[in-house]
């Protein structure tokens, strides 16, 4: 289904409709706390307003909603310098003090979730209810790591000489950098910033050039919570400066840790650029998640899981089901049920009531989905729901049947609302097909056979497996992949370990 009303983004060039011109309203005008709309980067506790700026647009309407400072390498160097200076003090704060500041930040994020959600929908496009859900998800990492700040424990090791004592302590790694994506413009920041601050590190964040406003609002709330100047810095960069600033952060000897969420292609580049300074790296890269439905599965549950996994954020998530495999005996039934549910999705502006599918982030994303669909049809796929580009940056949610391994949608991450369904016969065949990828971020399987659940879960080559569940990410479980989907883990008790170094202390001559 598709909504096209007075606020819809499918009005077209010049915002003309049959009954006359429609004046679109800037969604940021409706912010309750308008001071959350920041237009400059943050360095050493000060908002930096530059003459060189770039526009942030609403992907649903094409409207300019703000212009922000286009920061460059010089700003990156200043931010790293500020973080280096602040680190000397922040690392010496007690864990309880850092805990208290992070808890205040958590409270402010929750208090302002309506405004944060509005900014997110305006610049990213996801439905408003979904955006507010991300705010709550993002805040959960701040709350979780506020508690973990008090649990960075060391060890006392057994000694083998009476006059020695052996200790292991954990210390903050130092100045960190985070490069975050546009698809989760708040959660990907808090998932990196919260553990860094909890561990005693300072950090420089470069949000996506497409979605800086949510990041800046979160930083404003961090300042209100008491995060000291220089501990959290934010660099807003246009497309060209973004590349140069990313390189500067990688090459800086003062930056000791880099966290990045994005494509595997860019991850490889950042690894190479970080190699000369031997940085600690946390990389959450591309995915091509398989979703296996066995013939003993609860099909209603499997369809709902596929909907939640595939069509959240219009398919623009790294863990979304990119390849859906259904066993032969239930294949036709599953495809029919999935198609019926997909047909119920409402496409439109994320601020419109009942909309469940917003726009894709940019025209190139729309073209990629169309290319994958055209390729699949040319190679024999059957379109079960009407799949097509729509006006603007919208694509009608689509299901295709009879997908095969030679299609682009089997090899590449579509990152859009296209669900190809592949047929398989045996468990071994399903596992082999699922693992036929250089990626290994997330996998899903639906079955009621306990033995099969364990066999397949252990055989799937991915860092995360959802069993009878289409959404698996919460703050207290480790998030990350294997193979070319990255290194390191975020969230959980393991997430803070990325931001500390181990130090062994040997104390001798105890008896003297």
Summarize the structure.
The protein is of the alpha/beta class and 512 residues long. The protein has 15 helices and 24 strands. It has 2 domains: 37-285 and 489-500, Aldehyde Dehydrogenase, Chain A, domain 1, CATH 3.40.605.10; 289-468, Aldehyde Dehydrogenase, Chain A, domain 2 (3-Layer(aba) Sandwich), CATH 3.40.309.
Question: How would you sum up this structure, described in words?
Answer:
This protein is α/β, with parallel strands linked by helices and 512 residues long. It is built from 15 helices and 24 strands. It has helices spanning 73-90, 95-111, 113-124, 128-148, 187-199, 212-225, 239-251, 264-274, 299-311, 331-342, 363-378, 408-411, 427-434, 450-459, 492-495; strands spanning 16-17, 20-21, 41-43, 46-48, 53-57, 64-69, 155-157, 165-172, 175-179, 202-206, 232-234, 255-261, 280-284, 289-293, 321-327, 382-383, 398-403, 418-424, 439-440, 442-446, 464-467, 482-483, 486-487, 500-507. The strands form 7 sheets. Strands 16-17-18-15-14-20-21 form a 7-stranded mixed sheet, sandwiched between helices. The chain has a 6-stranded mixed sheet with strand order 11-10-9-12-13-23, with helices on both faces. Helix 9 links the parallel strand 14 (289-293) and strand 15 (321-327). Residues 53-505 form the Aldehyde dehydrogenase domain.
Global morphology: globular
State the helix count.
Answer: 15
Helix content: 25-40%
CATH superfamily of the largest domain: Aldehyde Dehydrogenase, Chain A, domain 1
Strand content: 15-25%
The total of beta strands comes to 24
Q: Residue ranges: pLDDT <50 for 5 or more in a row?
A: 4-22
| CATH fold assignment of the largest domain | Aldehyde Dehydrogenase, Chain A, domain 1
Q: If strands are numbered along the chain, what order do they take across the biggest sheet?
A: 16-17-18-15-14-20-21
Describe the largest sheet: 7 strands, mixed
Gyration radius, in Å? 24 Å
> Which CATH class of the largest domain is shown?
Alpha Beta
Estimate nothing, just give the exact number of structural domains: 2
Family: Belongs to the aldehyde dehydrogenase family.
Organism: Bordetella genomosp. 12
Domain Aldehyde dehydrogenase: 53-505
Pfam families: Aldedh
């Amino acid at each position: 289904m598709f909504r096209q009303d007075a606020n819809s983004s499918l009005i077209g060039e010049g915002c003309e409709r049959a009954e006359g011109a429609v004046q679109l309203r800037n969604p940021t005008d409706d912010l309750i706390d308008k001071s959350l709309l920041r237009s400059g980067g943050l360095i050493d506790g000060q908002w930096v307003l530059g003459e060189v700026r770039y526009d942030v647009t609403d992907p649903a309407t094409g409207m300019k909603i703000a212009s922000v400072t286009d920061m460059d390498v010089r700003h990156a160097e200043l931010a790293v310098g500020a973080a280096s200076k602040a680190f000397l003090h922040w690392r010496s704060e007690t864990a309880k003090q850092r805990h208290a500041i992070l808890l205040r930040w958590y409270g402010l994020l929750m208090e302002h979730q309506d405004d944060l959600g509005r900014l997110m929908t305006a610049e990213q496009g996801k439905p408003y209810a979904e955006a507010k859900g991300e705010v709550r998800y993002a805040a959960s990492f701040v709350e979780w790591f506020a508690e973990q700040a008090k649990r960075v424990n060391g060890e006392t090791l057994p000694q083998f000489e009476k006059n020695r004592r052996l200790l292991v302590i954990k210390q903050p790694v130092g100045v960190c950098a985070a490069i975050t994506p546009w698809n989760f413009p708040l959660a990907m920041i808090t998932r990196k910033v919260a553990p860094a601050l909890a561990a005693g590190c300072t950090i420089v964040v470069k949000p996506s050039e497409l979605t800086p406003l949510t990041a800046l609002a979160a930083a404003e709330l961090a300042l209100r919570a008491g995060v000291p100047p220089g501990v959290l810095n934010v660099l807003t960069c246009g497309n060209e400066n973004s590349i140069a600033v990313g390189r500067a952060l990688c090459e800086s000897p003062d930056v000791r840790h880099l966290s990045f969420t994005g494509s595997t292609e860019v991850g490889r580049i950042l690894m190479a650029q970080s190699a000369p300074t031997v940085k600690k790296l946390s990389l959450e890269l591309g995915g091509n998640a398989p979703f296996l439905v066995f013939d003993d599965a609860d099909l209603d549950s499997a369809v709902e899981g596929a909907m939640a996994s595939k069509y959240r954020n219009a398919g623009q998530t790294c863990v979304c089901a990119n390849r859906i495999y259904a066993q032969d005996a239930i294949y036709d039934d599953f495809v029919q049920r999935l198609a019926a549910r997909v047909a119920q999705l409402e496409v439109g502006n994320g601020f419109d009531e009942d909309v469940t599918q917003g726009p894709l982030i940019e025209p190139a994303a729309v073209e990629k989905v169309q290319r994958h669909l055209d390729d699949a049809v040319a190679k024999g796929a059957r379109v079960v729901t009407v799949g097509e580009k729509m006006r603007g940056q919208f694509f009608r949610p689509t299901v295709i049947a009879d997908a095969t391994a030679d299609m682009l949608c089997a090899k590449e991450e579509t990152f859009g609302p296209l669900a190809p369904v592949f047929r398989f016969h045996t468990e071994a065949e399903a596992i082999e097909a699922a693992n036929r990828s250089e990626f290994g971020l997330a996998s899903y399987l639906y079955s009621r056979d306990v033995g099969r659940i364990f066999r397949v879960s252990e055989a799937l080559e991915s860092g995360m497996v959802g069993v009878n569940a289409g959404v698996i990410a919460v703050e207290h479980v480790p998030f990350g992949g294997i193979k070319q989907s990255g290194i390191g883990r975020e969230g959980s008790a393991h997430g803070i370990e990325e931001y500390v170094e181990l130090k062994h202390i040997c104390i001798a001559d105890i008896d003297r």
